[in-house]
Amino acid sequence: MHTAVRRSRGLLLAAWAGLLLTGCFETLNYRHIQDDFNAAVETDNVQSVDALGALSGTDAVQRYTDIQAKLTDKDIDGLDDRLKPNAYAIRAVSQWRCGKLTEARNSAMKGLGLPNVADSPRDHIVLTMIPALVIDQELVSKFKAGGGTVSEARYNATYPSDFATAADMLKDAASKVQPGTPDAIIFYVHLQRWRVLQNWSVVISMIDGGAAAGGEARERARERAKSLLGGRDLLAEINSEQALVPADHPIRKAMEAVALQ
Amino acid sequence: MGEVELALFAIQAGVKIGRKIYDALVDETVEAPLLLPIGELAGSITLARAIEFFDGEGKALRAAGGPYHDLPAGPALVQAYFTVARVGEALGPNSRGTSDAVEVIQNLNAFEQHKKGFGPHSPWQRILGTVVEVGIDYFVANPQALGKDSSGRHVVEAFLVGIGDVDFAEGEPTDLVRDTLMAALKALGDNAALVSNDKRINVLLGGVTSALRQDLKGLSLGELARRDQLLQRITASIIRAGAGAVANNPDLFIGGDGKAKEAVRSTLSAILGGIRDSEDLFSNDALERLFSITLTAVGQNSTLFSNDKFVQAIIKNTVTELTRVDARKLFSGATVEAITRDALETVAENSETLIDPTDPQHQFIASAVAALAQGLASDLAGPDSVKDLFSTTQLVHLTQIVFREVAKNPEHLLGGKGADPRRTALAQILGSVASALGAEPSKLVNGQTLVELIESTLRVALKNRDKLLNLASSDPETNALFTVLAALADAALSAGDVRKLMDRDVFLATAQRVLPLVSANLDAVLGGDAQLVKGAVLAALQLSSGTLQNRINGENLPSLIEGLLRSVLQQQLSLTDAPAVANAADQLLRLAA
Predict the structure, then answer these.
(1) If contacts are CB pairs under 8 Å, which of residues 33-72 in chain B contact chain A?
(2) Chain A, window 231-260: residues with a beta carbon less than 8 angstroms from a chain B beta carbon
(3) Could you tell me if B193 lies within 8 Å of chain A, comparing CB atoms?
(4) What phi, psi does B458 have (nearest 5°)?
(5) Nearest-CB residue to B35 (from A38, A215, A260)
(6) Rounded Cα distance, B561 and B514, in Å
(7) Residue among B18, B72, B73 whose CB faces A17 most closely
(8) Number of cross-chain residue pairs from A and B with Cβ atoms under 8 Å apart
(9) Are A74 and B14 in contact (CB under 8 A)?
(10) What is the mean pLDDT of each run of 10 residues along chain B (593 residues)?
(11) Nearest to B73 among A30, A49, A211 (CB)
């Protein structure tokens, strides 16, 4: 009897050990996905400085696509719970950057719905930002599809409210700072809000193609933007976001590099 | 513990350790640093800033009639925006930044509205960029010039407006603009008084830039290098001189700023063309004065002097004559600039006599230089030239005298067109004086008295040139003038002057008294090869060491000689009758006392 009990106990321990080994394998595999993601972002950011951040036809698109294929819902379910916020964040960012905006938003919402998302402050902030970033991307894509110019009527119908929403969401994201939230991710939020506001400013500038004759329409758009921003001038808001990032921080340098475009 | 228990314990421990390792691996993966993307931009941020600027603060610049009116929303507009920003920066912390920059550029409308495609790729944009660069450098180095009403600021503004209608070509180097503006700032930047009238400085700087630009066109690389050196050297001087000239010559502006600018341009072009290949002979000061004088002349004689070819011909021909082989024996390099300046001044002041409206290129003044050189430095002057007696100042003074005399009667002194300079009255008069002074002219004259002797002789000879001069020959010794002067010199150097009364001043005074007298009595004088002249001098010298030695001195000796000669010529006295000569001398001295 004692011998039988000892044997079954040994088998259970062996199975448990096997499961541990499998978990280790999945985690190690996930680390490769993280590495791939970092490589994709690296390529992506070069494009941001060189070509206004448009990714079509670049190596980054393929890398982001591969990452999404490796992070299906089933794949993420198989991960340790602690890795899930990060996995959803990586997938959401990859989808955002590939233009799969609805999917990106869904990924973010799933990630934000995880009970332990607050345990990963960086990933939590990223997931919080994604809904704003996809709004911005949708507006940018529409604007570019329209030839990089817009009539006053179309601008009023399409852009101001959505840009304001995105800006507000990012402002909220910046305010969700936990004691363990690293400074860099807060600066990243400022970078993104700065970029969204810049995009808003760019779209306004191209009302009526940016021609001198459209000056009054653009001034009206700026006034409306100011109103939507709570009475703060769009350009002042942009500068304010930039000023929130220390001058010697790499994100500030990135802002300055992008601003030269 | 049996072996089985030990094995189970080992497995349990292994599982616990494995769990710890797994936890550590997951935690590390959760914490792994992530890169995050920047994201996409809707378009160019700088373009958006540019459009926003031109929608607001810079609206007037892009409105109809504004300098950037034709610029589409694109890189050109961005460059325009940067330009305005940089102008704002250049105006310094005491300015209102881009507001002041807008004001500055709005002032450019006079030229801007004539330029289509004003933008980053247009020549103007490059020029403006250069102006901004120079301005920045200047203001950084001269922070005191940052004030709104500073001279430096006025200069930059005036320069921009002034060069407005210069038609810079695509690809044309901007060095010229840089150098000229730097020179302008150097010359005028600390002189508020000179730049107080912006309009005139606009005209000056615009004209100077055009002229310098024109001067550099079509040159070989070697010429270009040399010319560059010259312009680097002189431009500040030129601008300084020009500022004074345009400020003091309202006549330049009769007809409008455009004509004034053209006058400045053509004047400087003429000077640069005139001194070409002789640049080293002109100091900065000389060119400064030459430009000032010529601009004044242009203002006062706008019709003739507005023709830069004409002014250039005056300078060029004068310099050419001054630097010929023969002339170089007389005119040192140091005299060239002064004489050229005098030449221009003389022509400007005597245009009615020195310029033939039907043939304005005919250069009496240049001919005068040639005749001067021939008369004093060639074989006409004899083996021992008198040229060495002149200091530079004296030679320049002599040239001024000659120019003045030429201006009164150019045909008389220089003959008609194409006259051989050796056979002009001027050359023959000068040659006669020089030859007559003999082998050791310094015993009779020094530089100063020689200048005075020549001046006196010119006046006398011109009034009787057909009798005193023989223009059929180029040999001065065939002139009656030579004969008389030689007789005088011979007597003055004779042993009869025991008391050495005939010093250089006395010789000059004697010649000045004798020449007019002789000119009016040539028959009597020349009949005896001018021995009467020599005889009168010797008689007076003899008395000065004889019975009248206590009454004759250097002061009254010339008038005594004149009196005796006059009596002889009037046949009231014979020089061979010694008592009569003494008696006449006594009378003359009494009258003179």
Answers:
(1) 33-49, 51-52, 54-56, 59, 62-63, 69, 72
(2) 235, 254, 258-260
(3) no
(4) -55, -45
(5) A38
(6) 8
(7) B18
(8) 181
(9) no
(10) 64 67 83 88 90 87 74 84 75 66 57 40 62 68 64 74 68 69 74 65 81 76 74 82 76 71 82 82 84 80 67 83 79 83 84 73 79 77 74 90 89 74 88 89 92 94 89 88 93 89 94 93 77 92 91 94 92 90 93 81
(11) A211
Judge whether A78 is closer than 8 Å to chain B, CB to CB. no
- Of B212, B301, B208, B213, the residue nearest B249 (C-alpha): B301
CB neighbourhood size of B22 (10 A): 18
Tokens 């002109």 sit at which residue?
A: B282
DSSP H/E element including A38 = helix A2-50
Tokens of residue B241, six digits: 């001189």
Structure tokens at B64: 């109809």
Residues from chain B that touch A38, judged by Cβ atoms under 8 A, are 33-35
Residues 120-159 of A with CB under 8 A from B: 120, 122, 126, 133, 136-137, 139-140, 143-144, 148
DSSP annotation string for B275-287: TTT-GGG--HHHH
Interfacial A residues in 158-187 facing B (CB < 8 Å): none
φ/ψ of residue B356, rounded to 5: -90, 110
Q: How far is A99 from A36, CA to CA, in rounded Å?
A: 18
For the whole model, what pTM was predicted?
0.53
> In this structure, are residues B548 and B561 in contact, taking their beta carbons and an 8 Å threshold?
no
Q: Decide if A165 contacts B12 (C-beta within 8 A).
A: no
Count the helices and strands in chain B (H runs, E runs): 30, 0
Q: Measure the CA angle with vertex B413, ends B559 and B406; round to 5°.
A: 90
Two tokens at B11?
Answer: 């497995």
- The residue in chain A having the minimum alpha-carbon distance to the alpha carbon of residue B18 is A20
Q: Which of B30, B46, B73 has the CB atom closest to A210's CB atom? A: B73
